[in-house]
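Fold sample X.
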Amino acid sequence: MKGTYAIVETGGKQYKVAAGQSVDVDRLNIAEGKDIELPKVLLIVDDDDTIIGNPTIDGAKVIATCLSERKGKKIIVFRYKPKVRYRRKTGHRQIYTKLAIKEIVNPNKKTAKRTRKKKEAVGSES
């Protein structure tokens, strides 16, 4: 994938995000239209440069705007015990927050651990 993207953690889950993309995450308690910073950035890839966190990248953050909140698909929870006539049927709808990713902020390049993808020379084996 060309361009810049990052792996961020929010709500105990990891998401691959790029600038201009919208993503659904577990509910964050913010108002619609407000900006939020996601400070737990685990990885940033910028074309040929890759910055890997240990476990996170110091000073890196992803800035996003809250677009809306919505409920997800209904999940049926059915508990059953045989021979004792025990049956319980309940449902659950998870609430999600839709975020629009505005920008990925790279940290100071001197403090971050940097790796470069190795380019193999074709036909240079001796």
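Fold sample Y, listed below.
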Amino acid sequence: MIRVEVRLYATLRKYQPEVKIGEALVRELAEGTTVLKLLENELGVPPDEVKTIFVNGVSQSFDYVLADGDRVGIFPPVAGG
């Protein structure tokens, strides 16, 4: 098992409403878990609502395999002006 720290930003926080602004979720996952599996199986976040994923400050794709201690930030598309 691995432990990762996850932060959902902006509109994605609605999928984990018990988490307060600025708080991280800590999840224990099976080794080999990808970002996509984290989204779908652990967080209930539809992948089509995700625009950017950072793991340890580096942009990653859905197929990135998570490692113990990773810090994951997940962002929706942002609009505005």
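Sample Y note: The radius of gyration is 12 Å.
Also: The chain has a mean pLDDT of 94.
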